[in-house]
Amino acid sequence: MRIAVCPGSFDPITLGHLDIIRRAAKIFDEVIVLVSINPAKNNCSFTTEERIHLIEKTIAGMDHVRVDSTDGLLADYLREKGACAIVKGLRAVSDFEYEFQMSLANKHLNPEAETIFFTAAAENMYLSSSIVKQIASFGGDISEFVPACILDEIKSRLLRK
Question: In angstroms, rounded to a whole number, what is the distance separating the alpha carbons of residues 82 and 32?
Answer without folding.
Answer: 11
